[in-house]
Amino acid sequence: MSKALHEERLMTVLVGPHVSEKTTIVAEKNNQICFKVRRDSTKKEIAQAVEMMFEVKVDNVQVTNVRGKNKRFGQTMGKRADWKKAYVTLAEGHDIDFLGAE
Fold first, then answer.
1. Each residue of 40-60: b (16+ CB within 10 Å) or e?
2. Could you tell me which residues are beta bridge partners of residue 63?
3. Which residues on adjacent β-strands are paired with residue 31?
4. CA pair distance 28, 41, nearest whole angstrom
5. Which residues, in sequence order, are bridge partners of residue 72?
6. Which residues, other chains included, contact 37 with Cβ-Cβ below 8 Å and sequence gap of 6+?
7. Cα–Cα dist 1/71, whole Å
8. Which of 5, 4, 101, 100 is nearest to 54 (CA)?
9. What digits encode the pLDDT tens for the residues 5-63?
10. Secondary structure of 20-88 in the HEC alphabet?
11. Which of 34, 30, 31, 35 is nearest to 12 (CA)?
């Protein structure tokens, strides 16, 4: 895979940050950030994408597949899409500020 194609793929790996009560606690306690990622992405790709986009050093990546919930839409039953979540541990002294506040 050429470098240009590889960087283009890395730009699509991270879907966005996943913000919840649990992820906020984890971020403060363990210096971890939680992201929604593509379902076909690997730990190595996730680490490279975070390092490239936010210019930080990544220590560890933990990944979990989240199953979509079964929901009712009126009378018909439906299912939300499955998705993948990655907890990225940043190296000591590195931080990502999504709000941009100084």
1. ebeeebbbbbbbeebebebee
2. 86
3. none
4. 26
5. 77
6. 13, 14, 15, 46, 63, 84, 85, 86
7. 40
8. 100
9. 888 889 999 999 999 999 999 888 998 999 999 999 999 999 999 999 999 999 999 99
10. CHHHHHHHHHHCEEEEEECCCCCHHHHHHHHHHHHCCCEEEEEEEEECCCEEEECCEEEECCCEEEEEE
11. 35
Reported as a single tens digit per residue, the pLDDT across 72-99 is 989 999 999 999 999 999 998 888 876 5
One-letter identity of residue 48: Q
Only one residue has tokens 């979509």, namely 68
- The answer to whether 80 and 69 are in contact (CB under 8 A) is yes
pTM comes to 0.85
Tell me the C-alpha to C-alpha distance, in Å, between residue 11 and each of 45, 57, 65: 10, 17, 20
CA distance 100 to 95: 12
Q: Which residue has the tokens 């989240």?
A: 66
